[in-house]
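Extended Data, panel c. Modelled sequence:
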Amino acid sequence: MATVTKENIGLLHEKLTVKLEKTDYLPSFEKALKEYSKKANIPGFRKGMVPAGLIRKMYGTSLFADEVLKSVDKELMAYLQSGEIDIFAQPLPMDSDFSKLDMNNPVDYSFDFEVGMKPAFNLPDPGSANITRYVVEVTDEMIDGEVERLRNRHGNMKNEETVNTEDNVLNLDFTETDADGTITEGGIKKDNSILVKYFAPAFRSKWMSQTTGHTETAQLKDAFEEKEREWIISDMGLDKADPAAAEKYFTITITKIGLLEKRELNEEFFNQLYPGQDVKTEADLRDKLRNEIQQYWNSQANNQIHDQVFHFLVDNTAIQFPEDFLKKWVKTQGEKTKTDEEVEKEFPVFISQLKWTLISDKIVQDNGVQVGPDEIRIFAKQQLFSYMGGANLSDDQPWVNDYIEKMMKDRKYVEDAYNRLQTQKIFEWAASQVRPADQFIGAEEFTKMVEAHQHHHH
């Protein structure tokens, strides 16, 4: 009768030994020989009439090894599924001499595997964390900017013959050149649409009274100030952090001149923006925008709370890992075996991700965090509406339900949606346990803080 025994060989590192008696695998081996003889197609013999001795001679060795290893795998999986141990990944086979498998001399066999044990640990109390809720107050300037953005977005563009104002929109061709305007072989060539007022003040005058076809050759550092220059450099596919990017020369050619006629602030426009929502005056519009902008910054503040909770849990949860086993396991992952140097380089990130996975699993188990099919359907519907540009779609349209049911049959989509919703619920639970202190902050300062944090962690 087969047995599985466990022996400790290191920190959270165990050796599992599967011992087989010959009675555990011989019956299945003899059965496999008979079945193979019925199916074998060997010249000179009718199908199903191949002598057993010939089958044994031709295929016995491989069938014997297959049945022995199948028996080992069956016993090992049964042991792991019994709940006696909780392990990482799959068992790794230890050195075994497969040449000892001899169908002509069936004996008892032993096979060794190593496993890494999942550790027991405790989570710190999120309520003890020093968490900050960043409060961004919505200013009149923010609302003014959003009103102008909407008026521009829904305005009408008319063609102009000449550049007459800083509000003119220029369709431009950027071609990389040297200081004399000679085209750089293999250089950048890019089209763009830019308002005249987005150029540096000293450069704007160069466009005034000009028509299509007019060109200017300049370095990006002279044509644009820092904020606009960074956007242009990124749009060119260059690294905005590279000082050499701003030094590049471009010949800039006007291909079209336009002037945006902003949308009038009237009830027709308000109803287009918010159909059926009783927005009839500019004051109503500004109230609506104030609420939307505040919701946006509140969501960004919540994201920051989640980020702080994440770091608190990761930094203050002590977890031991079977590092020897895990390094061996990481080494085997991928199309080819990794070198020791590659494993050492990847291991810190791997352990960090594994730590968060264990923390997440514990929160899910200890607090009954669940995601149901109906929640995934709602998520799919929200995604669909988002893809449609936030259009006011009716929930009961047949094609909407057909789309959702189609997505529910997509296993990969359902798994992805499940993981995203579960992660969201994990952070919502954690955030509900903290007592954040409010800190008022300007929108620009908040944005720079978030960008600096993201840069630090990448």
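Residues 276-456 form a domain with the Trigger factor, domain 2 fold (CATH 1.10.3120). This feature is highlighted in the accompanying rendering.
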